[in-house]
Design goal:
By secondary structure, the protein is mainly alpha-helical. The protein is built from six helices and no strands. Helix 2 crosses helix 6 (about 85-95) and helix 4 packs across helix 6 (about 85-95).
């Protein structure tokens, strides 16, 4: 019985965790300012992916006001997002998936 409860809990948590996708995070938080491969208000993901590592992308998303000078920007207009660790990981991977896009 304990094993059945554990397996059910594990499957439920796995399904919930897999619900976080980079595309979903993009559509929820990023699409208003960024496009995948075309210039919008912010740079396209293809440009970001060519310049930045995953750690840099995660740091900038987590704290744009702290990171903008380190990235050589004159100002930061990026909104402070409060993403879960799973969302942050998913969107960073999604941005990097455009590394080869034009």
């Amino acid at each position: 019985m304990k094993r059945m409860v554990f397996v059910s809990l594990f499957v439920s948590l796995s399904l919930f965790a897999s619900d976080v996708s980079g595309e979903k995070v993009f559509k929820t938080y990023c699409w208003g300012c960024h496009h995948q491969s075309a210039m919008a208000f912010g740079p396209p993901f293809s440009e970001i992916a060519k310049k930045r590592s995953k750690a840099e992308i995660m740091a900038y998303i987590s704290s744009p006001r702290t990171m903008y000078k380190k990235f050589g920007y004159k100002r930061s207009v990026m909104t402070q997002l409060h993403l879960s660790p799973e969302e942050l990981d998913a969107i960073s991977d999604y941005v990097l998936s455009y590394k080869g896009a034009k």
